[in-house]
Specification:
Layout (H helix, E strand, L loop, with lengths): L2 H9 L3 H13 L10 E7 L7 H20 L5 E7 L15 H5 L19 H15 L5 E4 H6 L4 H9 L1 H8 L5 H6 L3 E3 L12 E5 L4 E5 L5 E5 L5 E3 L1 H12 L3 E5 L3 H13 L6 E5 L2 E2 L16 H7 L2 H9 L6 E2 L5 H14 L5 H6 L1 H5 L13 H11 L4 H11 L9 H18 L10 H15 L7 H13 L7 H13 L7 H8 L1 H12 L11
Parallel strand pairs: 1-2, 1-9, 2-3, 9-10, 11-12
Antiparallel strand pairs: 4-8, 5-6, 6-7
Length: 535
């Protein structure tokens, strides 16, 4: 890889390169860490199913990792997807079977609770498998890590001893952040009861660093001494986060804006026990269609499976790439625009120089190797074609596509083929239920008749640009339209039953000049355009 390309990467404005440069220069001072690699991490709470935030964090972290690898190809990298599966289960999730059985194990680590689905040795392992399957389905390169494994294997022993050694200093950091009642019982250590297997929230009454033990008051009032090693305790999550950074040597980790105070506290604890907190990017949270923060418990907003019903995963990656530090609406109406933005970036990539390519989002979505553009047809065009054809299945759209782009087939244009299915699904679920046609006014009737006549004399080989020019000229010579926006709005409302639509020249070229003239004639005749033509 050339020094010139690395120099371009250093000056790139794309945020993953800026993050990677900061990591390389400020944290690593340009050197390979003593452990031999740079560690990126993404944490996961496995009490529920993976969600769109999980995808976003791993996708964005991967983008920074790939940018780093271009900047420093001689420094190996790893990405850990870390599951906090040693946490005690506080409540029974609503979306599982055998709730009563799970309810009998409240307070136990997730990996010590039987799997309500009956497919894995424990509930935690079931959810871990769901996480890995989820990440694998997107082709992420990562290494799965389990908190249970790290605690029980003894690999966290040194970190737990460090927390015990600096117990008082950690308490000085944590206690001011807690309420008065919580201060009375707080300890960074949560003992795992050897009688019940539950993770206990109980007071620690004595610390014995020389023996590596603590004494806690059990729920029955008795005093119990337990080692802080061998998985006999787990740490409260801010201390746990800090200890994990210290033991693993995490170099880079993202977290949501809502975790900024937690990151700051964990960073202080990490330094107290002798570690260096990772470089961190705090990303903004997603908003629903009403501008409210998306919440898993509320169920507002969009799930990964919702997005993937209507659009390809590459478009979701683009959504995650764009402005990670800005709050963004994550709802169904952002999908078509995001897909077309992705197609536009793919279309630009081959003709761009190296510098511009590094700033093109598709470089980061595809780790520097985006696919070649296909036909140039946009998602918006396909949606409007589905709308005017009242498409129930893919064959309707392919009928028009094959005529417009004779060489295109589902086999040699696989991305377009997927878009066809997405467009039909989106049309059926979102466009069709909201279509509302109106009749033309008398002046609009004259303009539509004029347009039909002008389209009728176009040469058979007229392309989208020639058709667009005709549409413009017709609109400009009818004074009923204050400007061309009013003309196009009238076309959308009368012919498509929508208040927005495609570039008409491109749409007519795809749908067909003859078919468009027939559609105009039907509108002028007062026919119901909400159903297919009877002709």
């Amino acid at each position: 890889m050339s020094d010139a390309l690395r120099a371009l990467a250093r000056s790139a404005t794309a945020w993953p390169f800026q993050e990677a440069v900061a990591l390389l220069d400020q944290r690593l001072k340009g050197q390979k860490p003593d452990k031999g690699y740079v560690l990126f991490e993404s944490g996961y709470g496995p009490s529920g199913l993976p969600h769109i935030g999980t995808f976003g964090e791993v996708a964005r972290t991967t983008m920074v990792r790939r940018a780093f690898e271009l900047l420093a190809p001689d420094i190996p990298t790893r990405l850990f997807a870390f599951s906090d599966d040693r946490d005690g289960l506080r409540k029974v999730p609503d979306n599982i079977p055998n709730k009563e059985m799970v309810g009998q194990h409240l307070g136990k680590p997730l990996t010590a609770i039987p799997d309500p689905f009956g497919t894995h040795p424990s509930f935690g392992q079931h959810n871990n498998a769901m996480l890995q399957g989820f990440l694998d389905s997107f082709g992420f390169e990562y290494e799965f890590q389990s908190a249970t494994d790290w605690y029980l294997s003894g690999r966290f022993d040194e970190g737990c001893r460090k927390v015990l050694e600096h117990y008082d200093a950690i308490m000085e950091v944590m206690l001011p952040t807690l309420g008065e009642e919580r201060q009375q019982t707080y300890s960074p250590f949560l003992p795992v009861c050897q009688k019940t297997g539950r993770v206990l929230q109980v007071p620690v009454v004595e610390r014995r660093p020389e023996s590596g033990t603590i004494v806690y008051r059990d729920e029955d009032g008795s005093l119990v001494e337990t080692p802080v090693t061998g998985g006999r305790v787990k740490l409260q999550w801010k201390a746990d986060w800090a200890m994990r950074w210290y033991v693993l040597g995490v170099d880079y980790e993202m977290s949501g804006k809502d975790l900024i105070p937690s990151y700051q506290l964990a960073s202080r604890i990490c330094r107290l026990i002798g570690g260096v907190p990772p470089t961190n990017l705090s990303y903004e949270l997603f908003l629903d269609d009403k501008g409210q923060k998306i919440s898993k418990s509320k169920g507002n907003g969009l799930a990964v499976e919702d997005w993937l019903r209507y659009a390809p995963p590459e478009s979701l990656s683009l959504f995650m790439f764009q402005k990670p530090k800005a709050a963004k609406r994550l709802y169904f109406d952002v999908i078509p625009r995001t897909v077309d933005d992705y197609l536009a970036f793919i279309g630009k990539f081959p003709s761009e120089d190296e510098g511009k390519r590094l700033n093109n989002p598709v470089w980061h979505i595809h780790s520097g190797h985006p696919p070649a553009p296909e036909t140039g047809l946009s998602y918006n065009i396909l949606l409007n074609l589905a709308s005017v054809c009242h498409a129930e299945d893919r064959s309707v759209l392919w009928h028009f596509i094959s005529r417009y782009v004779p060489d295109a087939t589902p086999e040699n244009a696989p991305f377009l083929d997927k878009l066809v299915d997405y467009a039909v699904a989106y049309y059926q679920d979102f466009v069709k239920p909201n279509k509302k046609y109106r009749s033309p006014t008398a002046p609009e009737t004259a303009a539509l008749q004029d347009l039909a006549d002008e389209l009728g004399v176009l040469p058979a080989a007229a392309d989208a640009e020639a058709i667009q020019t005709v549409v413009y000229e017709v609109g400009k010579r009818h004074p009923v339209f204050a400007d061309l926006r009013a003309w196009f709005l009238a076309l959308y409302e009368i012919l498509l039953g929508q208040d927005q639509g495609p570039r008409m020249g491109s749409f007519i070229a795809l749908y067909g000049v003859g078919e468009t003239i027939a559609l105009i004639r039907r509108a002028l005749a007062g026919e119901d355009l909400s159903s297919t033509s009877k002709a």
